[in-house]
Specification:
Chain lengths: 232, 104
């Protein structure tokens, strides 16, 4: 097997276990899209054009709540802020690549692909075709996400509303945070964000509660970080 | 829903992923900045999670007649113990179904 293909395959294999929770998330997204009545083409269109579960859900949630385009788009930007961090970390390994590669790899960079490929880059610095690992992990995510979206679209017309599947949005995001449950500072940040959003849902104008809550919580996170650095 | 909105949201998502890979030559974010950015998921996801759980259809806080709070609490406990994403989601969903069908 040639080296590029080997690295690509390694990316696919490494990311595969992380695809298990992505499948139900994608199905739920598809069901919700159909539930909100945006139709099969737009539901799948979001998955292809945006390709980010959290962004897509936030867009649907705010759109169905009647938020303006400006608020929807800035909330999507806020949800994606973590990708700036991923990019900053990966730039060390990818800065030498051609623009075309940077565009492709940016498009497929998800939480899961970042997690496994960053580990691979850290371990194996000699491989000249490192980026094929991210290509493999990223496109595996992409393929699984599109397939599970389509499954959700098909199931969307069958699943009864009484099952309360919209609750699974909250559960899915909650499950993405389980790594933070054991860190006391993160719990404080989560609590601040949640309380501000709940109180602000009706009191903050233009449905800007997600942005306001996230910024407030980030200010708290900054203070906690600075306090921690001072102690040391 | 409009296609233009979807396309703008797609561009924003792409730009956040692309910006640093494109701009940075080497890793120039300070450790402090990275530490703060690592809080981003904890700062943003609860803002999406909390309101649909605690607010009823009229947008008022409902603490008493609310199976979602109980189911979410159960999911948090299971998540804490299992550290497993899929187990956490199903623990919350199954306890929620149990509550709405048998109790509430």
């Amino acid at each position: 097997m040639n080296d590029k293909l080997k690295t690509l395959t390694k990316g696919i294999i490494d990311v595969s276990p992380l695809m298990i929770p992505v499948v139900p998330f994608g199905i739920i997204y598809g069901v919700i899209g159909m539930d909100l009545g945006i139709g099969p083409y737009m539901t799948l269109g979001l998955s292809i054009i945006i390709f980010g579960g959290a962004s897509q859900i936030v867009l649907l949630q705010l759109f169905s709540g009647g938020a303006s385009s400006l608020i929807i788009l800035s909330s999507v930007g806020a949800v994606n802020a973590r990708h700036v961090l991923y990019g900053a970390v990966l730039s060390e390994y990818l800065s030498g690549l051609k623009l075309f590669w940077k565009i492709i790899l940016s498009y497929v960079m998800t939480d899961q692909a970042f997690a496994v490929s960053n580990n691979y880059f850290k371990k194996d610095n000699k491989d000249n075709n490192q980026h094929y690992h991210l290509l493999g992990s990223g496109f595996t995510c992409w393929t699984i996400w599109q397939i599970s979206t389509i499954l959700g679209i098909v199931l969307g017309s069958v699943v009864p509303e009484e099952l309360g599947l919209s609750f699974t949005i909250s559960l899915t995001f909650l499950a993405l945070l389980i790594g933070d449950f054991r860190k006391f500072k993160n719990i404080i940040v989560m609590f601040v964000s949640g309380v501000v959003a709940t109180i602000g849902y009706n009191t903050i104008p233009f449905k800007a509660y997600i942005i306001v809550a996230a910024l407030t919580a980030l200010i708290v996170a900054t203070l906690l970080t600075l306090m921690d650095l001072k102690k040391k | 829903m409009y296609w233009s909105l979807i396309i703008y949201a797609g561009i924003i998502t792409f730009v956040t992923r692309f910006s640093m890979i494109f701009l940075l030559k080497k890793d120039i974010l300070s450790d402090k900045a990275k530490k703060i950015l690592s809080f981003v998921p904890a700062a943003i996801f609860p803002a999406i999670i909390f309101p649909p759980i605690f607010l009823d259809d009229n947008g008022t806080v409902d603490l008493e007649n609310n199976p979602k709070i109980l189911a979410a609490t159960f999911a948090i406990i299971i998540g804490y113990l299992s550290k497993n994403i899929i187990v956490t989601i199903f623990a919350g969903l199954i306890s929620y179904w149990f509550l709405i069908f048998f109790y509430f």
